[in-house]
Design a protein that fits this description.
The longest helix has 15 residues, at 17-31. 72% of the residues lie in helices and 0% in strands. By secondary structure, it is mainly alpha-helical. The chain folds into two domains: 1-33, no CATH class; 40-103, Up-down Bundle (AhpD-like). The chain is globular and about 40 Å long.
């Protein structure tokens, strides 16, 4: 089961409480907990792929979550290599920089 998320409330709870609630309770609560339909590991792969194509800062956090969910270094390298041709070489280079740091151990 997915770990209870509090990043929304921790970072935006005072400023945007409804958004924080939706982030923590709906997205990371209800959606990520539906492991009978799609495992957390698979959700992580999909999420990393989506964020990589967008080139957004949340990619780093989700790569770390993917590693926690069992995505291996080799799988992450393959995901980035595959998407380089669909999303763009510069985004892949940036993603490799993050992955290299996250999977350095």
């Amino acid at each position: 089961m997915a770990e209870k998320q509090t990043a929304g409330r921790d970072n935006l709870g005072d400023f945007a409480p409804k958004f924080a609630e939706l982030n923590d309770d709906v997205l990371f609560g209800e959606v990520w907990s539906r492991e009978d339909q799609l495992s957390a590991r698979d959700r992580s792969l999909i999420t990393v792929a989506s964020l990589l194509t967008q080139g957004v800062p949340q990619l780093e956090a989700h790569m770390k979550i993917a590693k926690q969910h069992g995505v291996t270094k080799d799988e992450m390298v393959e995901l980035i290599t595959h998407l380089a041709f669909y999303t763009g070489w510069p985004k892949a280079w940036s993603a490799f920089g993050l992955a290299k740091e996250i999977y350095k151990d």
